[in-house]
Write a structure and sequence with these properties.
about 170 residues, about 15% strand, membrane, transmembrane helix, 4 strands
Length: about 170
């Protein structure tokens, strides 16, 4: 039992939690908002609603005729495999980078699940102000965004420190 909670397995478990949370919230959103009115969380700023996205981020290629389902699915599958291998190869002492990668992996697989099963991704979180609105998104999108931001922070602020400590350990 203890071995499945050790790196890299713990990071795959985190990705599975993200996938489960993503799918559960999408099922809830479909039941609540597919045929009903949006739910105002913060009036004038945040609401839960329902949207189907056949494209990629920000509905890119949403009206391309159907081929994008398989194209984006293949990209997500290849990317998920790459991230899985990257996670597997990370040193056990690392925490920030594998946490970020697990979030990205969980989000990518969560949206891949929708895309392959349904042909579109279910979105339900809407942020807006006046006439401006951000594209509707979901838990998987949030996980991908937070994980990507964490990787950028790692690269900008911590990569050199880790590199220096590795070099000094080799001497």
């Amino acid at each position: 039992m203890r071995k499945i909670l050790m790196p890299p397995w713990r990071w795959y478990w985190l990705a599975l939690v993200v996938i489960g949370l993503d799918i559960a919230t999408k099922v809830w959103a479909v039941e609540q908002f597919r045929f009903g009115p949006p739910l105002q969380i913060i009036p004038g700023l945040l609401q839960f609603t329902y949207a189907e996205n056949t494209g990629a981020a920000f509905s890119f290629l949403a009206d391309a005729g159907g081929w994008q389902r398989w194209f984006f699915g293949a990209i997500a599958l290849g990317f998920s495999a790459m991230v899985s291998i990257w996670l597997w190869r990370l040193p056990a002492a690392k925490r920030w980078e594998p946490f970020a990668l697990a979030l990205i992996l969980g989000g990518a697989v969560g949206n891949l699940w929708d895309r392959m099963l349904l042909g579109y991704v279910r979105d339900f979180i809407s942020v807006y102000y006046g006439n401006w609105s951000f594209p509707v998104f979901n838990v998987a999108d949030m996980a991908i965004s937070v994980g990507a931001a964490m990787l950028v922070i790692e690269l900008l602020f911590f990569a050199e420190r880790g590199k220096d400590s590795n070099e000094s350990a080799e001497v």
